Structure formats: structure tokens, C-alpha cells
Amino acid sequence: MRHGRLTGWLRSPMSRRRPGVFFDPDGAVHEFDSSHDADEDQATAVLRELGIVGPNATLTVASHVEVEVAAAMRSGNINRGVLVINRTTGVCSAEKFGCMEVVPQVLPDGAQLTVWSPKEIAAGEPIVFSKDG
What we know:
The protein is an alpha+beta fold. It has one domain. It is built from six helices and five strands, in the order ααββααβαβαβ. It has a five-stranded mixed beta sheet. A hairpin with a 5-residue loop joins strand 1 and strand 2. The longest helix has 12 residues. The two termini are about 25 Å apart. About 35% of the residues are buried.
């Protein structure tokens, strides 16, 4: 996807309803949002399965689009993808249990997730999460 198309989507009214659009290796488009829904439930289940949280615990980050996509990639055994988010400040912090820490743990082994936001588009460089395996 070209930067112009990314910027156009990020400015469109559609992006305000859909904080994230994920492109899988086949080019299919999957929409995610940060609402409390089945995607968050799936992310929470993966966090529990991996021991990142206890069996009855959850994390706020489970509702973040980046973690929801990483969990979907894990469940679907998807090893590559591109996520475009509309959060102007980019991927959430590198603090404990933020996306920068959690996403690489959730991805399936050998996977790579490239994330573009307005911040990364302006810088001309995406955030690339990967998990060796």
C-alpha cells in the first residue's frame, strides 16, 4: 500500500470507526477496533495461554488493535501482515504491558507484523514487530 493511500484512509471518516485495518499475506483486508468484543476476548485468551496474565486476569492492552491482530495471527497461523492504525501518536508505549512489550510475545513463532500510523507515515518508517522461532 502506498503512503498516499494510507494517509487518505487515515483522514477518511471510515478510519474513525475502524482504528485498524490488517492486510494478511493474501491481501485480504480485516478490520479491527479497540472495542470490548470477541477480538479482545481472543487476545485475553492468548495472554492467559502464554502466561502473560493469570487465568482470571486481563490487561487493558488486550483491547488494543495491535494485540488483537497479533492474537488473530497466532490463532490463524499467519506469519506476515501489515496493520494500519489511526492512533496519531503511534503504537502505545514501551512501558510494562504496553503494545511494544506484549505484541512480540503474542505473535506466532517466526511471524512479523508491520504497523503504520500517522506518526510512522510522517517518519517514513513503520514499527516492525517480530518473533523468532
